[in-house]
């Protein structure tokens, strides 16, 4: 859990409506890569902790008998259920809970996934609980965008979104320290998942990077949705100044691209896997 920060239910309040449009997808093929790596065959159960609107659990559900998504945000779960209906996913169910509520009577799983959510949790406590919830040899999977990818030689066909200027604008409205719900992240979010999971008793680490290579065309509405999908610029944080902020945000976007069209490369996806030891013979 981030230093000096305490979770509260407003962390992603109001973000669910913007998530699907605003967030860039994980690399195409991430689900197939994970299935091949773990030998998934349609059996066993999947748990997605901090599932949000179903971004990861829905593509993976077909490789399991049952998929369970938990998230403390009811709006995220409602959006996940809606997306499941759109995609014809019938073996997923949704539970309103935090990672710290586990095991929550949910049973045993073959795979437990944290997609850019583990850093929000009491990591040592949650890792130990997840170890107990996994079947022998089961996998703890951590997914995120690949940081510091190699530079692409080809230029983008349109201007890139002005993320640095957007960050400056957010700080002008919300202050210099990154917001997260009712608190702030003075030191950012923690990393070194490897140390946490080693302490918990996981072993046999492996890492996979799934390349994307695609370029996404983005509109101003997409970038606005991205801003409002984030915990550090969730709509409620702006209070009565929300309309003023959005007006200024759209002005920044127009200054970068007068026709409000942008392009950006889809990031590669990093998949890190740790295993629960097999039971002693």
TrEMBL record:
Domain Methyltransferase: residue ranges: 47-138
Keyword Transferase: yes
Annotated InterPro entries: Diverse_substrate_MTase, Methyltransf_25, SAM-dependent_MTases_sf
One GO biological process term: methylation
Alphabetized Pfam families for the sequence: Methyltransf_25
A Gene Ontology molecular function term of the record: methyltransferase activity
Family annotation (SUPFAM superfamilies): S-adenosyl-L-methionine-dependent methyltransferases (SSF53335)
UniProt KW keywords: Methyltransferase, Transferase
Gene3D superfamilies assigned to the protein according to its UniProt record, in alphabetical order: Vaccinia Virus protein VP39
Superkingdom of source: Bacteria
Protein name (database record): Methyltransferase domain-containing protein
The organism of origin for this protein: Microbispora rosea
């Amino acid at each position: 859990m981030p230093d000096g920060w305490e979770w509260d239910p407003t962390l992603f309040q109001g973000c669910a409506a913007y998530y699907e449009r605003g967030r860039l997808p994980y690399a195409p093929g991430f689900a197939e890569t994970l299935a091949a790596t773990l030998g998934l065959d349609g059996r066993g159960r999947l748990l997605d902790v901090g599932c949000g609107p179903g971004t990861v659990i829905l593509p993976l559900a077909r490789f399991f008998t049952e998929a369970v998504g938990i998230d403390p945000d009811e709006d995220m779960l409602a959006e996940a259920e809606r997306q499941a209906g759109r995609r014809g996913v019938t073996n997923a169910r949704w539970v309103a809970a935090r990672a710290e509520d586990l095991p929550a009577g949910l049973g045993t799983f073959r795979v437990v996934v944290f997609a850019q959510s583990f850093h929000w949790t009491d990591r040592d406590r949650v890792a130990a609980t997840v170890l107990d919830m996994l079947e022998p040899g089961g996998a703890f999977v951590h997914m995120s965008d690949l940081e510091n990818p190699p530079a692409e030689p080809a230029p983008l066909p349109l201007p890139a979104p002005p993320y640095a200027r957007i960050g400056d604008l957010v700080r002008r409205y919300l202050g210099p320290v990154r917001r997260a719900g009712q608190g702030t992240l003075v030191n950012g979010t923690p990393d070194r998942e490897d140390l946490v999971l080693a302490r918990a008793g996981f072993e046999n680490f492996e890492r996979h990077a799934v390349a994307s290579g695609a370029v996404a065309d983005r509109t101003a509405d997409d970038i606005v949705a991205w801003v409002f999908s984030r915990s550090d610029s969730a709509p409620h944080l702006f209070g009565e100044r929300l309309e003023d902020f959005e007006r200024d945000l759209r002005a920044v976007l127009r200054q970068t691209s007068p026709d409000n069209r942008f392009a950006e490369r889809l990031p590669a996806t990093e998949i890190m896997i740790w295993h629960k030891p097999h039971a002693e013979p």
